[in-house]
Amino acid sequence: MGKESIRRWYHWYSPEDTPEERRLVMKLDFLIYIDQTNINNAYVSGMSEDLNFHGNQLVQFQTIFIVGNVLGLLPFAYLFPKVPMHWLVPSLDFCWGIFNLVQYRATSYSEIMAYRFMVSIFEASYFPGVHFVLGSWYKSDEISRRGGIFYAGLTLGTLTAGLLQAAASKHLDGVNGLAGWRWMFIITSVITLPLAFVGFVLWPGTPDKPNRLILSENEIALARARLERHGNKLEALPFSWGRLRRIFTGWRFYVLVIWDIFFFNTSANTAAFLLWIKSLDRLDTPTVNNLGTIAPALGIFYVLFINFSADLFLGRPGAITLACLWNLTGLIILTIWKVPESAKWFAFSTNYASVAVSSVLYGWANIILRHNVEERALTLILMTAIATSTNAWIPLLVYPTVEAPRFPKGYPYSAANVICLILMTQVVRVIYNKEEYVLA
């Protein structure tokens, strides 16, 4: 592969793209982007009392979600290259909306645990599925920004969930005999289900299994040509024992899995900020939920800045390192803990720097794996499943709910993983650059 063109921070397209390629990229951007937070807001908004949560049941609740995620991921290592993604991704979204909706009727801890497990099954492959689609259409110097916009949308959903929960607690609590936290599940499902149907029409699929309702044969051919120029392999081949053996004996699988495990363990407990605000014991429920949106609101900026900078001026290793250092600053303050309250507000506000790494890391993984569709699908799924599985049991040890919001083991554990992630990123950089030099 030849040397990539120098990019300025304000360049959305590659300087080498033709006008036809730019129109294609703009269309793909529109088609892809038109289209676990609710539970924390619900917990601090009355669900824990209504369903008699006690002890460590919040962290156990989060654990069953992770278990469902891992189990739900595994079939898609085979399905991604085989099933048209413009059918698969919206189907996951639709099923998620249905099981998210039925959570409003839960009357016990065990019942909502069952619903939550099903939600996690269908949510599991949505994130790697979107990144599989991104890696199927975009070049290496385009993918981080698009992944960043996707993740900014997820972060906006987190922010909106807090604002909606605050509004539901204030204005809908008791309406038709339903608590405000129950209305939250209804509202988010009413938003999600129509978008899932829109996705069946607008998702572009992948170049080898495209959505021909919205992409012409010329656009599909152009997309394939521009990717093949940059070394991407687009045709899926049947799995074989020999192919699997090559995947599991190469460096990519193991390095990417270890890298992803460190990433998945760099975040503080997702409920920590809300639990700390609630522990101040001077704010009503709507205010707790409104203040809880500070971190995801800043997170939108973190995600966009880190992902745009990865493509345009810092490079992927520099962008990941910057996000990690900002996250580490907050985790060190939370580890010390005995600091002024204002310092804790600042520390919790850095939390979303950890998730800003996500789309850079997965975008880079797509680039590393671009030479083989089956290896890309299998590795994206398994690295996510294995890394996610660590979140099924480690939080029980380091982030038990009974230690909230102090978490004396959790914050230093996350800080240690941030340091490991920085070091591992440099390992990936060295190995990747060496391989690209050989292939050039």
UniProtKB/TrEMBL annotation:
It comes from the Eukaryota. Keywords: Membrane, Transmembrane, Transmembrane helix, Transport. The chain crosses the membrane at residues 59-80, 112-137, 149-168, 180-203, 253-277, 289-308, 320-339, 345-365, 377-399, 411-432. It is a multi-pass membrane protein. One of its GO terms (molecular function) is transmembrane transporter activity. One of its GO terms (cellular component) is membrane. It is found in: Membrane. SUPFAM superfamilies: MFS general substrate transporter. Gene3D superfamilies: MFS general substrate transporter like domains. InterPro entries: MFS, MFS_trans_sf. Its main location: membrane. Belongs to the major facilitator superfamily. Allantoate permease family. PANTHER family: PERMEASE-RELATED, TRANSPORTER SEO1-RELATED. This is Major facilitator superfamily (MFS) profile domain-containing protein. It comes from Oidiodendron maius (strain Zn). The lineage of its organism: Eukaryota, Fungi, Dikarya, Ascomycota, Pezizomycotina.
